[in-house]
Amino acid sequence: MSIIKRRQFLQFAGSALATLGISQLEIEQQAVRYAQVLAQNTPRKRALLVGINDYLKLGNFQWYPLEGAVNDTQIQKELLINLFGFQADDIRILHDQEATRENILQAFEEHLIKWAQPGDVAIFHYSGHGSQVADPDKVFEDGRVSTIVPINSSLPSGYPNKGGKVSDITGHTLWLLMQAINTENVTFVLDSCFSGGARKGILKVRSRPGDQELLRIKDSKIQLLASTEEQEYQKQLMSRLKLTNSDFVKLRQQGVPKGVMLAAAKRDQSAIDTRFADTPVGIFTYILSRYLWQQTSSESVNQVMLSAIATTQKILQEYFPTSGIVQQPEFNVKQGSNNDKQIVYFTNRKNTPAEAVVTKVQGNQIDLFLGGIDPRSLKAFGRGATFTVVDSQGREQGQVQIESRQQLKAQGKLIQTTTRGAAIATGTLLQERSRAIPSNLTLDIGLDPSLGQEIEQAKQALQSIKRIQPVPLSKQEVQYILGRITKSYYQQLQKLKVENSPEVGSIALFSPAQDLIPGSAGTPTEKVTDAVKRLQPKLKSLLAARIVKLTLNTTSSRLAVSAAMQKVDGSQIVAESFTVRGGANKILTRSRGTTPQTSNAQKMQPGTRVQFLVANNEPRDLYISVLLISVDGELKVLSPLPGNEDVAPIAAKQEILIPDSDRGENYIFTIGKDPGIAEVLVIASTTPLTRAIELLRTLAAEKPKQRGNPVNLDKEPTEAIASLLDDLDEGSRGGGTSAFTGGVGNAIAGVRQIDTRQMAALSITFEVV
Fold first, then answer.
1. 399 and 251 housed in the same domain
2. What DSSP line would sit under 471-502, residue for residue?
3. Does 452 share its domain with 418?
4. Strands 330-333 and 260-263, how do they pair?
5. Average pLDDT, the chain
6. Among 15, 314, 502, 564, whose CB has the most other CB atoms within 10 angstroms?
7. Which is it for strands 185-191 and 260-263: parallel, antiparallel or unpaired?
8. Phi (first) and psi of residue 621, to 5 degrees
9. Which 3 state secondary structure label does DSSP give 105?
10. Same domain, 273 and 159
11. Residues 389 and 282 in one domain
12. Residue 551 DSSP SS3
């Protein structure tokens, strides 16, 4: 049967934190940060961070301002200070109007080149638009050199019909600047790209038009060139470095002159500027930073970038599967060096993984920066979410609960402590204890201009559906877009050879990158009100999928659980997921002597028969639910099934296979033929899922013929998921096993709290090809 459609640095000054409830809560604010402790007996460090959002549009030419570049520099700053021992004074930041060509070069000279000595650590981070200009030296075959675009670099008048000069900073200059820093421990991070500048849905590509976009209709020899000032500055740098032009060309072709260069994308690819929840960022900067927050030791450049590449690929596949967007981060090191095996940023880091860091303490009020949160679950870290304060041995010292959050900055309070006497200070790292999923979470639908005069009707029709919220497309995260199939979009589908493409004029749902959602298109004559009515079941299912995916806590759950997808004959595990902090967790691929896989989207051929292996590595029983989010966004229950809802939990240290006829699961899971991304969610809980079981009993009564087969939650999927979350919330509040009394701290109205010690939610995605 085919069912697929689709560290803590702080040694507390005493034995523990002051007990909440004593009239005077004593929180000693220490003047010495962890960064200062870490900096002892380590290299000197400095960084120059540049982020530019406020680019201006030139005439009618589409050159978009960015939203996430300035945030990137804040993300990088907090990472360097709190994990890598940088002092605030070590870091120079240029934003928007400050980031002129002259200011960037002057800051580079003053802050890095004149300061650096052998053995020092130097970092340059740039987030903004990239571009290309013609290269008179023709260092590369295409005769162009990539650039970064300062705030004051304008395209020449008459562009793209005319050429001219721009005040960009070229890749040649960046090479010479890197060479001029008097240390080998140099890292450049460039979150920009040099081709494909455009906007797709709410996504922006970090590329300004350049030489290759010139319309050379009347004059095939017109070019876009670097400014005279830029060319003269390169000559000065070569003179200082005692390089002839021919020497420079030869060395430039060999790659970077020293250190490491980390880039958001390959030369012909896109670097994406987007939003996660309310937070605009560059995908590469966020993924790179978040990975480093989660690590327990200093990893090599190669290890870090392999993970960044895989995670970027996963997010692009999951969110934008048919958009045509390709972004594969890459890195370059000095030819003949072993810099790829050196630790990232050439300096040791704190070895405790974390989701957040304390940035300010005033009484029991705590300001936090959420640097280690999965971007896709940010919505679950608002009011009511809690974090654990741990010491360097991982022992709990207290809890901080969020009261409000804006982007990656949150305000909270210390709500639970152990014994009196210790302190929480700026720089203290925190780990997730529970997330808070809003009970009134909505599915936000952007209204595309292709709806024309029907936008207001579409808005009213969507507002009539509970928890479906129409929103403007500008400067706001949306989960999906409602619009019509345009002629240009239809032609794009034809180029991608999409089968059964909808007709021009059809109303359909699209992803944030304007990917068509399978099965959502109607007919060209359909009214928008009729289209919304037709799409209502799918919208509810997509909302339910959004809610349940907010529970995913693979990197933070304390339960020891692992899951894998394997071929029915047991010959191969094709994908695997496990809780990173699950203690003595069992890695299924290692126990079978196979090559380790990841939960990234594996390509699966139609007709492949698979099973899902779930291992309970806890010393107690666990209750398991397995859900499928199909290619078209529908939710299905794979286990337990209606009619078998009282199936026993997984016993301690045992494994189960799903489907399993011994558990009343009488189906074979076969990969269908329709292409797209599907996702299997494995949810493990220490407490029975009572409400969810009652729902299954109801479904069994309504659909007796489906006994033993997966059931589609097509009737009221949001209510179904709500019952599951109610179970998890109740278990979080009543089943706590920490040294503190109760579960996850203060109950907060309007949210469901999901405790990392009581629940694990794992994801395995796969792509049907």
1. no
2. E-STTS--SEEEEE--HHHHHHHHHTT-TTPP
3. no
4. antiparallel
5. 84
6. 564
7. parallel
8. -70, 150
9. helix
10. yes
11. no
12. coil
